[in-house]
Write a structure and sequence with these properties.
Shape of chain B: globular
Protein name (chain A): Putative ABC transport system permease protein
Distance between the termini of chain B: 22 Å
Membrane topology (chain A): Multi-pass membrane protein
Largest sheet of chain A: 6 strands, mixed
Strand content of chain A: 15-25%
Number of helices of chain A: 18
Shape of chain A: elongated
Structural class of chain B: alpha/beta
Largest sheet of chain B: 6 strands, mixed
Number of strands of chain A: 10
Oligomer: heterodimer
GO molecular function (chain A): transmembrane transporter activity
Strand content of chain B: 25-35%
Pfam families (chain A): FtsX (PF02687), MacB_PCD (PF12704)
Keywords (chain A): Cell membrane, Membrane, Transmembrane, Transmembrane helix
C-alpha cells in the first residue's frame, strides 16, 4: 500500500471530491484549450498569409516623414543611386532584384486592351513602358505572369539597351501582334500649362520602335476570375489588371533614352525653366525579392545605413497588418483569455486543493505518525491531482478545440464583414510585383482551428504547468503539519 | 535490559519568564516482554509523555534512548517508521481503505525487512487480533469501534516492532471490549516479547499490567 496505490484508491473511492476537482479542471481546461486553439490557428494564418504575400521589398522615399512640417524642399530630394540599389541588392537576404523605370507612351498603330466596355483611361491610348534590368523579368519570376510565346530577354539585350519588348497575350491578340513583329510608339512632350481650350498641347514628339521577343499571360488574374468579390473591388482590380496587360516590358536603356528626350524637349520648349526644375536622372523603383519571409526583418536592419535620408523599406508583409485585422484582434482576445484563465486556474484549483487537504488533515497526520516521509505524502497528493487533471485536460483538448471553432467562426464572420468595407485590396507601393491579391476573405479561409500535435503539446504543457503550480502552493500546508497536534 | 529509557527528560511550556513544567527530570526505563500502564489525572502530562517516547514531539531537555541509542540520533521519523507501533484513542485509520489495506500502509512505509507476501501477513495479523477475512476486506468505516481498534492494533504490529505504545486505547470502548483489548496487549507482551506501554485512566487496566507508573506534578513514579 505505497503512496502511489493510496493515491489511486483515494481518487477512485472518494468519487465526490474527484468529480468536483474534475469539473473545475475541465471547465478551466476548456477555456485554456480554446484560447490556445485560437492562438495556434492565428499564428498559422500569419505564416500562411505571409508566405502567400511573398517576401518582396522595395526602398522608397518616405514623403510623409520627410514633409512632417510641410517645409521640405523637394527640389533638394536625394534620389536612390544605382550604386545604392546595387549595394542593397548584394545583401545576403536578397534572392534577386530589379530596378525599373517607367515611361508612358502612346501609339498610332497599337491599341490598348480594355476589359469589355470599360474606358478606364478616359479614351487615352497610352501604355506603360517598363524598362527593366533583370533579364528574366522579375514579375514573371514571381509568378505574376508567364511567357506563353517567344522568350524572355537575355542579359545582353538588357545591357546593350536593345529595343526588345515583351507584351501581354491580350494586347497581342487585340492588335494581331506576334513574336518578331515590331511596334511603333511615340514619346510625347506636353506643354507646361493648359491651353485656352483646357488641353495640354503636345509640343514635341518622337517615335521609337520595339521588337516583340515574347508574349506573356497574366497568371494571378485567373484565380480572381472565379471569385465572388464585391463590386468596388472588381472595379479596382479591373483597373490594375488592365494596366498590367497594357504594360510593355523592355530594357531600361530604351526607357531612359525616351525620358531623356522628354526632359530635354520640355526644357527647350520652356526656356524659363532650369535643369534643376526638370530632373533628368532616372528614377528607379528597386524591387528586392528576398529568400524567405523570415528574412524581411534582417533585410530591413541590414540596409538601414545603405539608404539615403528619408527612405524607407516597404514589404509585402506590411500588407498583413491591414488584411489580417480580424485575426489580430482575435489573437489579442485569445491572449487575454489565456492569461486570465491560467491565473484563474492556478487560484481556483489551488483553493480547491487546499480545502481538500484541510479536510484530509487527519489522514495526512496518520501517514506522518507512521513515519512516512513528507515527500511521499506530497507525492500522493500531487499524484491524485494529476490523475484527475490528466483526465480533465485530455477531455478539454477535444471539447476546448471544438468550442474554439464555434467561437472563432462567429467572431471571424462579424469582424470580416466589418473589415471588408474598409479594406484596401492593393498595395500602394507602385509596382505590380509588390501588389497582392490576398484579401481578408483569404485570411478567413486560411484560418482553421486544428487539432494538431503542437496544440496538444502546448495545451498539456500550459495545463499541467498551471496545475503543478496550483497544487504546489497548498502543499506547503502538508510540510507544516504537526502529527502530534493532529493525532493526540 | 531496558529497550526504552528516558533520562532526565524535561518538557515545559514557556510562559513569559516562567517555565510551566509538564515533565521534570523524568527518568524511567521499559523492558521487553512487559505490559506497562501509565496512570495520572487529566492534564497531568500522560499524553505528552507518550508523544515524547513515540517521537511525535521532542523533549526540551534530557534524552530518550532506544536500545541505548538516542532517538534524536536515530531520527524521529525513522524511529517512528521502524521501531514503534502507535495506537490512538480515536483509532486514526484511513477512512477510504479497507481493514487489511490499513494494516498494509505501515508495511509499505517501514524499512524493516518483512515477508514477501505482506498481504497474507496482514490477514493473519487481523485474524490473530480477532477480525476474520470478511471483515478485513471491509472499509474501516463499516466496522464497529472495537473492530476499528483491533485494526489499529494490527497496524501497530504490522512492521514487527518491539515497542507498542497506546494512548487511551479503550477510551471509546465498552467494558467487554476493553477487556478483550487488554487481553491482546498482555498476549503481545508475554507471548510475543513486546514492550507494551499504555496510557490510561483505568485502574482496572492498570491492575492487569506488569508495572504501573503514576504521573503527578511532572514526576513519573512507580505505582504500588
Amino acid at each position: 500500500m505505497n503512496f502511489i496505490k493510496r493515491g489511486l484508491l483515494s481518487v477512485v473511492r472518494k468519487k465526490g471530491k474527484s468529480i468536483i476537482l474534475f469539473a473545475v479542471i475541465f471547465v478551466l481546461g476548456n477555456l485554456i484549450a480554446g484560447a490556445i486553439s485560437i492562438q495556434q490557428a492565428t499564428k498559422s494564418v500569419e505564416n500562411t498569409i505571409k508566405t502567400k504575400l511573398g517576401s518582396v521589398a522595395t526602398v522608397e522615399f518616405d514623403y510623409e516623414s520627410a514633409d512632417k512640417t510641410g517645409e521640405f524642399d523637394f527640389s533638394n530630394m536625394t534620389f536612390l543611386s544605382v550604386d545604392q540599389i546595387k549595394k542593397i541588392g548584394e545583401q545576403p537576404a536578397v534572392k534577386y532584384y530589379d530596378y525599373s523605370t517607367t515611361a508612358y507612351s502612346s501609339s498610332k498603330t497599337v491599341k490598348r486592351y480594355e476589359v469589355e466596355d470599360a474606358a478606364i483611361m478616359g479614351g487615352m491610348n497610352q501604355f506603360q513602358v517598363k524598362g527593366i534590368h533583370y533579364a528574366p523579368v522579375l514579375d514573371f519570376a514571381e509568378g505574376k505572369g508567364k511567357i506563353v510565346d517567344g522568350r524572355i530577354f537575355n542579359q545582353e539585350e538588357i545591357d546593350k539597351d536593345q529595343n526588345v519588348a515583351i507584351i501581354s497575350d491580350k494586347l497581342a491578340e487585340k492588335n494581331n501582334l506576334h513574336v518578331g513583329d515590331t511596334m511603333v510608339f511615340q514619346t510625347e512632350v506636353y506643354a507646361a500649362e493648359f491651353s485656352e481650350n483646357g488641353q495640354l498641347e503636345v509640343t514635341d514628339t518622337r517615335d521609337f520602335v520595339l521588337e516583340i521577343v515574347g508574349i506573356f499571360e497574366q497568371t494571378a488574374a485567373k484565380k480572381e476570375d472565379n471569385k465572388d468579390n464585391k463590386k468596388e473591388k472588381d472595379v479596382q482590380k479591373m483597373f490594375m489588371d488592365t494596366e498590367y496587360l497594357n504594360t510593355i516590358y523592355t530594357s531600361a536603356g530604351v526607357v531612359n533614352a525616351e525620358n531623356d528626350f522628354s526632359s530635354e524637349a520640355f526644357l527647350k520648349a520652356n526656356p524659363e525653366l532650369s535643369e534643376k526644375d526638370v530632373p533628368n536622372d532616372p528614377m528607379y523603383t528597386p524591387i528586392y525579392v528576398l529568400k524567405s519571409p523570415e528574412d524581411i526583418e534582417t533585410f530591413k536592419t541590414d540596409i538601414k545605413d545603405l539608404m539615403p535620408k528619408n527612405y524607407i523599406v516597404k514589404t509585402t508583409a506590411d500588407e498583413y497588418d491591414s488584411i489580417a485585422a480580424p485575426i489580430k484582434s482575435m489573437s489579442k482576445l485569445s491572449s487575454y483569455v489565456l492569461i486570465v484563465s491560467v491565473i484563474a486556474a492556478v487560484l481556483i484549483i489551488g483553493l480547491v486543493v487546499l480545502l481538500f487537504l484541510r479536510d484530509r488533515k487527519h489522514e495526512l497526520g496518520i501517514y506522518l505518525s507512521l513515519g512516512e516521509r513528507k515527500g511521499k505524502v506530497l507525492g500522493q497528493v500531487m499524484l491524485e491531482v494529476l490523475i484527475v487533471s490528466i483526465v480533465g485536460i485530455t477531455l478539454s483538448v477535444f471539447s476546448g478545440n471544438y468550442l474554439a471553432r464555434g467561437v472563432s467562426d462567429t467572431l471571424l464572420q462579424s469582424q470580416t464583414e466589418e473589415t471588408s468595407t474598409n479594406e484596401q485590396m492593393f498595395s500602394s507601393m507602385g509596382s505590380y510585383a509588390l501588389q497582392t491579391d490576398v484579401t481578408t476573405e483569404d485570411v478567413a479561409e486560411a484560418y482553421q482551428v486544428k487539432l494538431d500535435s503542437n496544440y496538444v503539446l502546448l495545451f498539456y504543457g500550459i495545463g499541467l504547468g498551471a496545475i503543478f503550480l496550483s497544487t504546489a502552493i497548498p502543499l506547503i500546508y502538508i510540510v507544516r503539519l504537526n502529527p502530534k497536534k493532529i493525532m493526540m | 535490559m531496558a529497550i526504552l529509557e528516558t533520562k532526565n527528560v524535561n518538557y515545559y511550556y514557556q510562559d513569559g519568564d516562567q517555565r510551566r513544567y509538564i515533565l521534570k527530570d523524568t527518568s524511567v526505563s521499559f523492558e521487553k516482554g512487559k505490559f506497562y500502564t501509565i496512570l495520572g489525572q487529566s492534564g497531568s502530562g500522560k499524553t505528552t509523555f507518550l508523544s515524547l517516547i513515540s517521537a511525535l514531539d521532542q523533549p526540551k531537555e534530557g534524552e530518550i534512548l532506544y536500545n541505548n541509542e538516542n532517538i534524536k540520533q536515530i531520527g524521529y521519523e525513522k524511529y517512528r517508521r521502524n521501531d514503534i507501533g502507535i495506537i490512538f484513542q480515536s483509532y486514526n485509520l484511513v477512512p477510504y481503505l479497507t481493514a487489511v489495506e490499513n494494516v498494509l500502509v505501515p508495511m509499505s512505509i517501514t524499512d524493516n525487512s518483512l515477508p514477501t507476501d505482506v498481504k497474507t501477513v496482514a490477514y493473519n495479523l487481523l485474524d490473530y487480533i480477532g477480525l476474520g477475512k470478511s471483515k478485513a476486506d471491509r472499509l474501516v468505516t463499516m466496522l464497529s469501534g472495537g473492530e476499528q481498534q483491533r485494526v489499529a492494533i494490527a497496524r501497530a504490529l504490522a512492521t514487527n516492532v518491539e515497542i507498542i505504545l497506546a494512548d487511551e486505547p479503550t477510551g471509546n470502548l465498552d467494558e467487554e471490549m476493553e477487556q478483550e483489548i487488554v487481553t491482546i496487549f498482555k498476549k503481545l507482551a508475554h507471548e510475543h516479547d513486546k514492550c507494551v506501554i499504555v496510557v490510561t485512566h483505568s485502574n482496572e487496566i492498570a491492575q492487569q499490567s506488569d508495572q504501573t507508573f503514576y504521573l503527578s506534578k511532572g514526576s513519573l513514579v512507580p505505582h504500588e
